[in-house]
Amino acid sequence: MDLVIQDVQVVDGTGGASYRADVGLTGGRIDAIRREDGGPRLSGARTLDAAGLALSPGFIDMHAHSDLALLRDPDHSAKAAQGVTLEVIGQDGLSYAPVDDATLAQVRQSITGWNGDGSDIDFDWRTVGAYLDRLDHGFDGAGIAVNAAYLVPQGTVRMYAVGWDDRPATATELARMEQLVAEGLEQGAVGMSSGLTYTPGMYANDSELTALCRVVARYGGYYCPHHRSYGAGALQAYEEMVTLTRRAGCALHLAHATMNFGVNEGKAPDLLALLDGALDAGADITLDTYPYTPGSTTLAAMLPSWASEGGPDSVLARLRDDATAEKIRHHMEVIGADGCHGVPIEWDTIEISGVSAPGLASYVGRTVAESAAGLGEEPWVTARRLLVEDGLGSTILQHVGHEDNVREIMRHPVHTGGSDGILQGAKPHPRAYGTFPRYLGRYVRELGVLSLEECVAHLTSRPAARLRLPDRGLVREGYRADLVLFDPATVAAGSTFEAPRTPPVGIPHVLIDGRFVIEDGRRTDTLAGRSVRRTG
């Protein structure tokens, strides 16, 4: 065998009891598993003494924003060091394929805060298939840091076929969107995402979304919506997605399924009761969460949807007009804009985590309310100036979550892990660098919210089943050797809100395709990642 991992505690991803074994790898797959006292020891060209360590399948990040990071950063330790061996990108309805030239320029501008403006990227693709080919090629044909699966972004598709108008699609436009979604799935996408608090995707009505979900269902994919509200009306927004996908006959995966803002404190059981009712009735539903209370997005995402009609340049024009800007402020601070989930914005919960313009760096790490107080002005004045001067590129942390809700949701049997990690900005959310070790350290070892075996199943086999991957997500003979070795006694997120890019501890080895991408706690130069495409 190429490598034998000796005397390791196997946490195999099934949720069943762990066991001690030797595990042999050959040709990028798990060749043999010899349980303790199960016959002769395995032998190989190389052995690794793993006494004191646990071996699990590689972690699958079900909600990632590494769409450009995978192409600009061959190291990508933000994910590799956590034990992530597969990321699902194309999230929240906004990404870079399928596009034409005009759509590409618009989407680059609209999600600069998520991925940078892309000025360092050669956008030599326009289709989903060509983007996945680019991931396969990676850096000089060697590949990328970790594997990646892709969701067709419904907001980008609408931008391409309809534009930025807040209106129903025509029959011709809907047919074009159905075609684009079908082509993306045929070329390897695993499903479709939406960002229904982001423009222009949020302009789609339920009839339009149902039609697109029927296309997704036809190809055996799943729908992954960031639904219309995580604040006021959150339960109704969840119910809308459940009803819509059941009507379409489409599998549903709820993105960052949280219950946030004061109106939803203690309401996780209400959400789970809704989902249990649908599951009992035969619905195919999963969800993902991150193990933190604050959320993260762009400052521009807080704006009311009507202010974003027409695209980024129209947004900036409205913000520069005093009368229109005052109308925007009133919607945000008094009425509760749909961009802020129907809840009047509280500027002391909005912390600036990153800016695109270097001259605005002094705002980073402070709430809008704190910066405004220091300048002797109202918070909206500060926010408006940031939006304009940063070209809508500012990212935020939004401190609106509830720990009890986080714990309650992560216990649910259909739960999976997703970082929702934005890698841009001077002080990004630590979830981008710490989600998976935080699950294992804080919520397993320290708090006992989940057992080790159950938590590993949430992070491995359950997402692999959602993605319909026949040979990933379990430590089992014949499966791909995408594996993580960690110390259950010490594994922890190193990242904090003060130092978000601090690497985790207690994860000495990570393998993809049987090759070390992390060895003895250090990133190797191996680029074993490729696109993972829809099958069947």
From TrEMBL:
GO CC annotations, alphabetized: cytosol
SUPFAM superfamilies according to UniProt:
Composite domain of metallo-dependent hydrolases, Metallo-dependent hydrolases
Which residues are the signal sequence here? none
The GO molecular function terms of this record are:
hydrolase activity, acting on carbon-nitrogen (but not peptide) bonds, in cyclic amides; hydrolase activity, acting on carbon-nitrogen (but not peptide) bonds, in linear amides
Domain of life the protein comes from: Bacteria
Which residues does the UniProt record annotate as the domain Amidohydrolase? Answer: 47-518
Q: InterPro entries, alphabetically?
A: Amidohydro_3, D-aminoacylase_insert_dom_sf, Metal-dep_hydrolase_composite, Metal_Hydrolase, Metallo-dep_Hydrolases_sf
Protein name, UniProt field: D-aminoacylase
